[in-house]
Design a protein that fits this description.
- By secondary structure, the protein is of the alpha+beta class.
- Helix content is about 45%, strand content about 20%.
- The protein contains three helices and five strands.
- The protein has a five-stranded antiparallel beta sheet with strand order 2-1-5-4-3.
- A hairpin with a 4-residue loop joins strand 3 and strand 4.
- Helix 2 runs antiparallel to helix 3.
- The longest helix is centred in the last third of the chain and has 35 residues.
- It is globular and about 50 Å long.
- The termini are far apart.
- The mean pLDDT is about 80.
Length: about 160
C-alpha cells in the first residue's frame, strides 16, 4: 500500500511518552529518524518541569504551548504523560486532542503493568510501530480533510 503522505511535510515531528518523574520512556521521531538520547532526555525534563511548575502555582497542568518553531500538545495521566510536537502548520486543536487520545488509549489498553518503564524493548518497539501507524493515518486523514476543504472553498 502506497503512503498517501509521501513527499508531504510531516505535521507531527515527535511523540514522547514520559514517566511521571520526567524520564523519557519512549519517543517516536518522524523527522530526523535519529536517536538523540541527550535531546530526548532534556526535552522530557523540560516538559516535566513545566508540568510541575504549573501545578505548583495552582494554574493546572498545561495541555498546549508553543515555541518559535513548534507547538507542543500534552496529556498527563496517572502513570505517564504524552507530548506531541508538531510544526507550526495550523491544525484544529480538537484534531490534535483526538490524536493524543488515540495514542493514550493504545498505551493504556496495551499495558497492564503498573510501571511503563518496566516494559521491555521488544514491546516498546511494537508500541512505537503502532504509534507510527496511528500518526501516519491521522496525517492522511488531515491531508484529505484539508484537500476537501480547499476544493469546497474553491467552488464557492
Amino acid at each position: 500500500m502506497a503512503k498517501k503522505n509521501k513527499g508531504r511535510r510531516k505535521v507531527i515531528e515527535t511523540v514522547y511518552i514520559i514517566s511521571r518523574t520526567g524520564l523519557p520512556l519512549l519517543y517516536v521521531d518522524f523527522v530526523s529518524q535519529e536517536d538523540d538520547v541527550d535531546a530526548v532526555t532534556l526535552f522530557s525534563g523540560i516538559i516535566s518541569a513545566i508540568q510541575v511548575a504549573m501545578a505548583e502555582i495552582d494554574v493546572g497542568v498545561p495541555s498546549f504551548f508553543d515555541t518559535e518553531k513548534n507547538e507542543i500538545f500534552m496529556n498527563v495521566t496517572e502513570k505517564f504523560a504524552i507530548a506531541v510536537v508538531k510544526n507550526q502548520e495550523p491544525i484544529d486543536r480538537n484534531e490534535m486532542n483526538k490524536l493524543i487520545d488515540e495514542i493514550q488509549t493504545l498505551i493504556s489498553f496495551d499495558q497492564e503493568v503498573e510501571d511503563f518503564s518496566a516494559i521491555g524493548g521488544e514491546t516498546k518497539e511494537v508500541i512505537s510501530k503502532k504509534i507510527r501507524e496511528i500518526v501516519n493515518n491521522w496525517e492522511d486523514y488531515i491531508s484529505e480533510r484539508e484537500a476537501t476543504k480547499r476544493i469546497k472553498d474553491s467552488l464557492w
